[in-house]
Amino acid sequence: MLRGCLDGHPLRVIDIGQGDTESSTILHILQIDAVVAGDVCYNQVHMMNAYTDDAARQAWITSLDAIAALKPSTVVSGHKRVGAPDSPDTIEQSQQYLRDFSRVAAEQDTVEGIVAEMLKLHGDRDNPYTLWLSARGVVGNRS
Q1: CB–CB of 39/21 below 8 Å?
Q2: Does the N-terminal or the C-terminal CB of the chain have fewer CB atoms within 10 Å?
Q3: CATH number for the domain including 59?
């Protein structure tokens, strides 16, 4: 963990582990009780699961638990809908999306099946292209 300053505010750079890639970091800005969550927390957009398997998604949920344990009042996601609030609620929303994706991917045999079921659950999220890529990645890794 590195320590530093951002505009005079003390911060910690934390190697949090799994996000949408295997090794992710976050910034915890202590004085303003904020986390810049990068690719670990998503806000109202489909999450990139193309390079994850069930174990990686579970590790990602654990990384989100670590962010929640910091009890931030502000969470800035690396991927978010324009204008979406930087709310800590995005932590649980991201975890639910990952749980749903894992369950749906296990239940569905096709890319189309995964996409259709995820859109039923999370159709209000932006960037469905990412969902298509993720479904293709999961199905492709089964071969």
Answers
A1: yes
A2: C
A3: 3.60.15.10
